[in-house]
Amino acid sequence: MQQWIRFVQRNGAVGFGFLIDAQPAGLSPQTAARDLPSDGADANALPHPPGTAATVADGALAADLACHRPGGQVQVCTGNLFTQWEPTELALPLADLALLCPVIPTKMIGLWNNFHALATKNGDADPAVPLYFLKAPNAWLAPGADIRAPAGYDGRVVYEGELGLVIGRRCHQVREEEADDYLFGLTCINDVTALSVLNEDPSFAQWTRAKGFDTFGPFGPCVVRGLDWSTLQIRTLVNGRERQNFPASDMILPPARIISLISRELTLEPGDIIACGTSVGVLPIKPGTRIDVVIDGVGTLSNRLA
Fold first, then answer.
1. Integer CA distances (angstroms), 225 to 4, 5, 149, 184, 236, in order
2. Which of 139, 148, 145 shows the shortest CA–CA distance to 56?
3. Among 17, 33, 162, 222, which is 20 to 30 Å from 195 by CA?
4. What is the pLDDT of residues 94-115, one digit of tens each?
5. CA distance to 38, 63, 247, per residue, from 234 (Å)
6. CA–CA separation, 35 vs 200, rounded Å?
7. Which CATH code, of 3.40.640.10, 2.10.110.10, 3.90.850.10, 3.40.1390.10, is assigned to 108-305?
8. Residue 4: predicted pLDDT
9. What parts of the chain have a pLDDT lower than 70?
């Protein structure tokens, strides 16, 4: 199992790598910006979104990861996460870093009505194809950063804890039996929704607007490879109180079928994310509320509604 992160140091230097429990022989614990790799030609090689400033405020210090991995560090890499990467001679302490979104998607595809329990509760039929909406890059939010509703919006905001599929290869018209070859790894997602907007206009359901506000797409803290998705449990904690707890195995459409069917209609690029949908337990939240999406083996995605 590999856990990949993107990070920023206090001096603003950014990087990416995978988590290690201890410092292997020969690695240097240097943290100077000049020691970090700076080559690369695309968003997932230079790990920070274009046009944004890399500061520790962009993400939470990786304290939770460090607590679960005593002495934990990140093995710094260079290159491109999805095509060719190489480890450097640097290993940095997790406790000295802030987390960024682990990848930079071109889009996030969110599924509706993809869990049996919620479909049964709502009286909805099982869909034969993915019922989906899109979130754009303006919505991405790093672990630990604040969710912020637009000025003037005072309607309901709800959380939705979900499992995310991270695409690793360009994916177009892929057969279901091939789809696993295009799945890079798994991550945690909070599909934040401005619920009051969704059906505000009775003539047009506003899925893009309700789901796509700035900061309404938190995901992370890692992208994890080597896990069996069907064994995972998705939990959502609201101010420490469990509000969602459901098995990934309750999905109506499994990941390979989701990837295959969506790829017939939309080309998926490396780093793109599919949010597999949520289940029962979604509720409105108030400003000041902390939401933790917890998937054992993947991590804890923590954000607060400002």
1. 8, 12, 33, 7, 22
2. 145
3. 222
4. 999 999 999 999 999 999 999 9
5. 36, 21, 6
6. 52
7. 3.90.850.10
8. 97
9. 22-71
